[in-house]
Amino acid sequence: MSALAKNAKTLLNSTAAKTAETTYRETLSTEITTALALVESKSTSSSSATALAKKCRESATALQKAMDAVSASIEQQSGVDCDKLKCVALTFDDGPSAVNDSKLRDELDKLKVKATFFMIGKNITSSTS
Asked: Which stretch is the leader sequence (predicted)?
């Protein structure tokens, strides 16, 4: 239970700067607090082992559900799950450029990397499109 709560805290902290639904993050925070309180109470609890085990299972299930909701929220916002796919986003302030774009495309081809380019602005010419 404490390991799961630690993982949940890591997730909560790592999503602080992201725009995940606040409700999901608040729920996760509440479930972390509940799980940690349960861990603390195990040593002083007068509950039976069966009752304590049931509380632990319920808390672990709720905590995992809250973690899944935060993760799904972030994944939905990005449209791409970079935990499952290898992905990177690049921006070029001074592009497109016939020299730089062809070098980049050649390198991507050599590495068998798929890429999508969105070209906008006044620098688009027949050599860059």
From this structure: none
